[in-house]
Structure formats: structure tokens, C-alpha cells
């Protein structure tokens, strides 16, 4: 029994470490559909496969130690399952903590509405210039037109009041 538990824990633990390394280094991802809902089985978080392998690996190690110390196999199995579930919970909490700092860096021109910025290249009354605007924590250079057909000089603080295709419509702050 101890030999079987040793091999199960080594195999499950080794596979778990391999999946963690593949997802960390190579972005290896397996998605599994359950019904009409898509479930992340092995993505950036602790999915179904990694969770199952965590429970099996830790549970079998604890069972092996308890059976080796001449405990009742039924008690060892119960403690092993509980230890596996605790390890699963702790690992999932660790992943939640690590992924909490993840940000969505995708943006659209609509994200610039009512944002403040500064004119980088002057905006002529009838033409376009360039403004620097902070969008989702990143300073962006965008093509801009004056909202009220007035020239806006370089360095003037502006506010985005509209979006017109690839241009933002701005007005000088007063």
C-alpha cells in the first residue's frame, strides 16, 4: 500500500509541477466545456486538472506517512482527503492573490472620453495635432482636433470631449 501511495503521489505531483511550468513558461492552456458553460481547466488559475492533481498528490503523501506510522488505513484516508482539500484551498488562495494584480491593458478610443491631457504638437483651428493622454495608466499620443475650431498651443492642458474615428476632439481647460 505504501509503495502504491508513493507512486501515485510522485506521478500526480510531477504532473502538477509540469503543468504549472508549462502554464507559466509557455502559456499552455487546456479549456474544458461542461454543459453550456466554459470552465477554465488549466489556464492561469488553479483549474480542474491542477486542483484534482493537488488533492491527489498531497492526500496520497499524507496517507503514505500515516500508514507508514501504523495508523488505521481508514483514518489515514480521511486525513489524507482533508489534507488534500486544505492544500487545494491554500493553493487557490495563492493564485487569487497573485492574479489580483493582473490588469486589462486593452483600450479603445471611448476610454479617452473626459480624460485630461496636454497638447504635444499644437492643434491648428482647422487641422489636427497630437495630444498626450493617460489611458488606463499608460501615456498615449493621439491625433486630436479642436472642438470649437480654436488653435490650441503646445503644452496647453486639455480635456477630451468626443471621439471622431481616429481623432479625439479636445477643448482647452480654462
Structural overview:
There is one protein chain. By secondary structure, this protein is an alpha+beta fold. The chain is 42% helix and 26% strand. It folds into two domains: 2-99, no CATH class; 109-172, OB fold (Dihydrolipoamide Acetyltransferase, E2P) (Beta Barrel). The protein has helices at residues 2-26, 48-68, 73-99; strands at residues 31-34, 37-40, 116-121, 128-135, 138-146, 157-164, 167-172. The strands form two sheets. Strands 3-4-5-7-6 form a five-stranded mixed barrel. A two-stranded antiparallel ribbon has the order 1-2. Strand 6 and strand 7 form a beta hairpin. It starts with a helix and ends with a strand. Residues 37-44 have low confidence and may be disordered.
Structure summary:
The chain has helices at 2-26, 48-68, 73-99, and strands at residues 31-34, 37-40, 116-121, 128-135, 138-146, 157-164, 167-172. The chain is of the alpha+beta class and 174 residues long. It has 2 domains: 2-99, no CATH class; 109-172, Beta Barrel (OB fold (Dihydrolipoamide Acetyltransferase, E2P)).
Amino acid at each position: 500500500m505504501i509503495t502504491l501511495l508513493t507512486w501515485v503521489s510522485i506521478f500526480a505531483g510531477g504532473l502538477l509541477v509540469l503543468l504549472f511550468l508549462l502554464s507559466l513558461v509557455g502559456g499552455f492552456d487546456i479549456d474544458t466545456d461542461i454543459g453550456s458553460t466554459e470552465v477554465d481547466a488549466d489556464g492561469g488559475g488553479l483549474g480542474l486538472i491542477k486542483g484534482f492533481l493537488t488533492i491527489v498528490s498531497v492526500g496520497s503523501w499524507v496517507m503514505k506517512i500515516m500508514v507508514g506510522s501504523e495508523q488505521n488505513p481508514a483514518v489515514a484516508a480521511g486525513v489524507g482527503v482533508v489534507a488534500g482539500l486544505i492544500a487545494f484551498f491554500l493553493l487557490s488562495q495563492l493564485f487569487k492573490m497573485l492574479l489580483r494584480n493582473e490588469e486589462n491593458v486593452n483600450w479603445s478610443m471611448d476610454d479617452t472620453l473626459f480624460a485630461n491631457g496636454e497638447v504635444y504638437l499644437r492643434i491648428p483651428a482647422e487641422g489636427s495635432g497630437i495630444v498626450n493622454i493617460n489611458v488606463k495608466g499608460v501615456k498615449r499620443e493621439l491625433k486630436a482636433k479642436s472642438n470649437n475650431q480654436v488653435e490650441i498651443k503646445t503644452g496647453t492642458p486639455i480635456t477630451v470631449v468626443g471621439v471622431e474615428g481616429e481623432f479625439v476632439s479636445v477643448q482647452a481647460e480654462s
